[in-house]
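Hello, quick one for you while I still have it in my head. A protein chain has come my way and I'm curious about its shape. I'm sending you its amino acid sequence along with the backbone structure tokens. I'd be grateful if you could look everything over and explain what you see. Here's the protein in full, and shout if anything looks odd to you:
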Amino acid sequence: MVPGGRTGAAAHDPFSLGRRIDILRTGNQIAISSYLAEEDTSFHGIEVPFRNFNLALVDNVAAEYSFMTEMFSTMSFQQISRKASEVFSSIFSLGQGLAKQLVENTTDSLGVLMCVRLNQQAAFELQRRKVPVADSYINGINMLLWPRFQVIMDTHCESLKRIGTNTGRSAVSALSLAGGDDLNQSSAPHFLTQRFGQLLHGILVLSSEAGDDEPVANSLARLTTEFDGLLTKLSRIGGDAKRRERFLYNNYSLIMTIISVSGRSYCWGSANSTAGYARQVSNGTKAAL
């Protein structure tokens, strides 16, 4: 989350969901053809190749499995499933290899989380078509995606923690928008607040229908705790108490504005989530001082 020494050349902001969410909402269930894929030279997030490959996989596996159940109707369910697993094993290995290639080095937490949701959609579609032979493949993809998502969230937390635990003024001041006298007087929202708010919004939108057994809540709670600590420390760089209060109020208000969607806020239910920010804003951020 904290900018490093090198800047990437990504065509989209990995901290902002934007129109990337459309890939989960589209009703088009047809994978892009190999010809069009080869001709397409534009940049795409990791969720695009992941979705197109798995759309093709689901369609082909479902069609072949349906054919096998009709062709080998005299065989038992277990025999057909075992035979189908043998036929599709190379395809499943190819899919797992693609997923690993897409996520193993990425720090795009929103992209990985979208792949999780796309994988869930594929699982629902396979259940609807009554194709049980791909269950192990779906579970294997989950075992690749969830750990990587947690690693990325841990990386964000550690980057904030390294700055927040540095007691020297210079390290924290380096992240400020202004220098000199302006640093002591400015109460404008910090640039990291915009980035944090967009990331928080994206994760909450992608998790609005998530189950209680997912690891997102713990990772998000830790991230907000680290950001709260950093923001409080930034507020103490010079200035009087009123300036610090205005600084915190403006930053928390910006976060509330960003995560408000269609007139309502997604509430995570923890003390460090939307509800916590709402209380701090309404109390004039006195709790954070």
The chain has two domains: 18-33+41-152, 167-272. The chain has a mean pLDDT of 79. Strands lie at 260-261, 264-265.
